[in-house]
Design brief:
The complex is a heterodimer of chains A (404) and B (115). Chain A has 404 residues and is an all-alpha fold. Chain A is built from 18 helices and 2 strands. Among the domains of chain A are: 58 residues, no CATH class; 111 residues, no CATH class; 62 residues, Methane Monooxygenase Hydroxylase, Chain G, domain 1. Helices cover 67% and strands 1% of the residues of chain A. Chain B is of the alpha+beta class and 115 residues long. Chain B has a single domain, classed as Dimeric alpha+beta barrel (Alpha-Beta Plaits, 2-Layer Sandwich), CATH 3.30.70. The chains are: A mainly alpha (404), B alpha+beta (115). At the A-B interface, helix 2 and helix 3 of A face helix 3 of B.
Chain lengths: 404, 115
């Protein structure tokens, strides 16, 4: 039996381990199912199967490490994601997005190993310094190797959750690019482009997964608005102010088709629902003509699938638009005690908008000032300052806002 | 094949408040866990609570300080462990996820091998 196993492994230590393993399995298995007819054959089969399994995992893991090494030694940003075999890219992205790694790490590894960015490029993308990013990636490699994170596509049982994690990472890259959290540009094109690349790759690899289809749709539909989100002078333009004729209608058509497909492919997951909301906006000729009730209905579904405070906030905003600013304020009030939103500028700015609609100008101004405190993006800050200016002469509650 | 330590961290006050019936149920769950994962099992033990722990440290002069209690005060305390063998982290997680730990959770730590 040992010999048969050595023939598979070529490695005596591993063979011995597998044989030992087979004996252990026999103890538990035979207690339940009884002793098999051919004891020798049973043991040999189990030992050999185990050996094959371990070897397969080891060889793919070695390939993963060599991929990570090559990238570093190379130093260049050769994107060979397209040249790698299909299932290798899938294995790679699932490994990069393994839940045992922190989200920051998942994003960094995905950009580096799937988009082919160099470490300095990834650092720039996330506005951290190069040494910090290099350390993050080194720690990630250490974690992968010491805890033996496997290089493979998850089992069918684990797949739904793991796909969601991958989609979250890609969505995060998109969201960061679409509205940069800080800095002087509203949009970081490089990140948007990468996220679209990744979303298309996932669509190619997992064409039947509803949320994968949904994510690609969401990115296309949201990015279709890119050209109109700032004025020629660089000022922020809200969805209500954007020139819809300038939206990318090819992207909208593609995205809308994908939304229909996503909704057909299975029970609507969060990305499919977000995409459906984006599709509704894209289909509306104007802000005023938007079917807000339908959007609220979609948010009602989304908040169940994805009970995130940001989703709840967006739902509250939609309620205000569908049923009036008082209803909007009520819905927002429920979120005031939500700790994760306490520094979230959009909570205050949404509240400010509804207050202003109700003519409560002093309160509106105070809320815009609160929003300004929590925003680090220059384009957004300029917009908020403009709103505050527009409400001057209404007597701010706390007097002068200088000295903050 | 790699070894992992599965550390069980649970709230001792929750344990204290648990009835004998619940305690018995948990014991059964542990036995079931061990039976089901026999092939992966390399060791394991329950520990007495932190009230029975003794900690040792040295002060800057090198003098041994012996104190009553766990090394660090944590919300959940180490209550037991299993030593398991698994092909990779996914397999280790699949096994560790079955460890009964209703008053807290488990940590999966890879064993370091020195060549």
């Amino acid at each position: 039996m040992l010999a048969a196993t050595i023939r598979v492994t070529g490695d005596i230590d591993l063979a011995e381990e597998c044989v030992q393993d087979a004996y252990s399995k026999a103890l538990t298995n035979w207690r339940e199912s009884g002793i098999p007819m051919n004891v020798g054959a049973w043991l040999t089969t189990v030992a050999r199967r185990r050996a094959i399994d371990v070897l397969r995992r080891r060889s793919t893991q070695e390939r993963l490490f060599s991929l990570m090494e090559d990238r570093d030694n190379n130093g260049s940003s050769s994107v060979d994601g397209e040249h790698r075999p299909v299932d290798d890219r899938l294995r790679l992205i699932f490994t990069c997005c393994h839940p045992a790694l922190s989200v920051d790490t998942q994003v960094a590894l995905t950009l580096k190993l799937l988009c082919g960015l160099t470490t300095p490029e990834v650092a720039r993308a996330f506005l951290v310094n190069e040494a910090t990013m290099a350390a993050r990636i080194t720690r990630a490699k250490k974690k992968i190797s010491t805890s033996h994170i496997p290089y493979r596509v998850p089992t069918a049982e684990d797949l739904p959750e793991r796909i969601d994690a991958v989609l979250s990472v890609v969505h995060l890259v998109f969201a960061t690019g679409h509205t940069a959290p800080s800095g002087s540009d509203l949009v970081r094109d490089d990140l948007v482009v990468r996220s679209l690349e990744l979303a298309r790759m996932l669509r190619e690899l997992l064409p039947a997964q509803s949320d994968v289809t949904g994510l690609l749709a969401l990115i296309l539909l949201t990015d279709a608005r890119r050209r109109t989100r700032t004025s020629p002078q660089g000022d922020l333009l809200l969805l209500s102010q954007q020139d819809r004729s300038q939206w990318d209608h090819d992207a909208i058509e593609e995205g809308t088709g994908l939304v229909r497909e996503a909704l057909r492919q299975g029970p609507a997951g969060r990305f499919a629902l977000m995409a459906a909301i984006a599709a509704l906006h894209a289909a509306s000729p104007s802000w005023e003509n938007t079917d807000w009730d339908e959007i609220v209905a979609l948010y009602d579904l989304l908040v169940v699938t994805w009970p995130s405070p940001v989703v709840a906030l967006n739902r509250a905003a939609a309620i205000g638009l569908a049923r009036g600013p008082d209803a909007g304020l009520d819905a927002l009030a429920a979120l005031d005690s939500e700790p994760s939103l306490s520094n979230y500028s959009y909570l205050a700015s949404t509240r400010a908008t509804f207050l202003r609609d109700l003519g409560r100008r002093a309160e509106a101004r105070a809320s815009f000032e609160e929003a300004l405190e929590h925003s680090e993006n220059e384009v957004e800050r300029a917009f908020l300052r403009q709103q505050i200016e527009g409400l001057k002469g209404s007597g701010s509650i706390e007097g002068s806002s200088t000295g903050r | 094949m790699s070894e992992y330590l599965v550390l069980i961290y649970e709230s001792e006050s929750d344990w204290g408040n648990a009835s004998e019936e619940v305690g018995g149920k948990i014991m059964t769950e542990h036995n079931d866990f061990m039976a089901k994962n026999g092939a992966a099992m390399r060791g394991g033990n329950a520990l007495h609570p932190t009230s029975s722990a003794t900690s040792l440290r040295r002060d800057p002069s090198g003098k041994l300080l012996v104190t009553d209690g766990a090394f660090a005060e944590t919300k959940e305390a180490l209550g037991g462990y299993y030593l398991i063998e698994a092909a990779d982290l996914d397999e280790a997680i699949a096994i560790a996820a079955q460890v009964p730990a209703r008053f807290g959770g488990v940590e999966v730590r890879p064993i370091r091998v020195f060549d």
